[in-house]
Specification:
258 residues; alpha/beta; Elongation Factor Tu (Ef-tu), domain 3; Rossmann fold; 2 domains; 7-stranded mixed sheet; globular
Length: 258
């Protein structure tokens, strides 16, 4: 069930100029948030920002009533959020959307592929898989090192693999050219820029690997009412905010083949 709550910023960190991490709490327990679900954040103080902003949940602890957002600064809304301080308050609608499947065999060889702001939900997913006895590999990519801001946070829960387009960190090249990507995996999860996810999905389909993608379409309402985030699937048009954002690629040939 969706809730609206006022959260207080408990901690603010800025690991790179492009990213800010906000740890939020509202003083009590909260609904569990599945890896891959998101929140809609109300942005105040800027007349240019009228709609809530959808932000992936980077981490969550329902018992403590805290959640963490990794925000990439790309426009007026995210710039305003990045400028908030500890003690400021944020109004959130949560939990929204359908998350990643975590009910998989503990022996599964599992790969998580992320790029840009798509790195955000993979930490919560890594922790969930680790709790089930699965140590995934996490392949994180970006144009340059400063666009891979939180890779060390994954290390207690996953084997971390890095690559950059300019060679400033890890493998020199895209995620699909990393040697580990071509290995045989039982399950691949991916979130990031659309061209990257389509390339990952096509490769997984060709190799008969189960794969889930988390789409990042433009959203407004977050509940399937405004229809601005609709995407074409093999099962017809679906709202990314309500029917996703996570989809199994077995239903997404129309999306990844175009």
């Amino acid at each position: 069930m969706k809730e609206i709550h006022e959260f207080t910023i408990l901690e603010r960190r800025q690991p790179t100029p492009q990213y800010v991490i906000l740890v939020l709490g509202h003083g009590g327990t909260m609904q569990p948030i599945a890896p891959g679900q998101f929140v809609e954040v109300q942005v105040e103080g800027d007349p240019r920002v009228m709609l809530r902003r959808p932000i992936s949940v980077h981490d969550a602890d329902a018992a403590k009533g805290t959640l963490t957002l990794l925000i990439q600064i790309v426009g007026n809304g995210t710039r305003r959020l990045a400028g908030l301080k500890e003690g400021d308050r944020l109004n959130l609608v949560y939990p929204l959307g359908h998350g990643f499947t975590t009910d998989i065999d503990a022996a599964s060889r599992t790969l998580l592929v992320g790029g840009g702001a798509g790195i955000a939900p993979l930490l919560h997913l890594s922790k969930a898989l680790s709790a089930k006895g699965i140590r995934p590999s996490v392949l994180l990519g970006g144009r340059t090192a400063s666009l891979i801001p939180v890779h060390r946070e994954f290390e207690p829960y996953a084997d971390v693999l890095l690559c950059t387009d300019d060679g400033s960190m890890g493998h020199h090249g895209m995620v699909t050219t990393h040697p580990a990507f071509s290995q045989q995996w039982d399950m691949i999860y991916t979130c990031g820029p659309t061209p990257m996810m389509k390339a990952v999905a096509r490769s997984a389909a060709e190799r008969n690997i189960r794969c889930e993608v988390s789409l990042e379409n433009m959203m407004a309402c977050g509940v399937g009412a405004c229809l601005c985030c609709v995407t074409d699937t093999d099962q017809g048009h679906r709202c990314v905010c309500k029917d996703g954002p996570v989809f199994d690629i077995s239903t997404m040939k129309k999306w990844y083949q175009c």
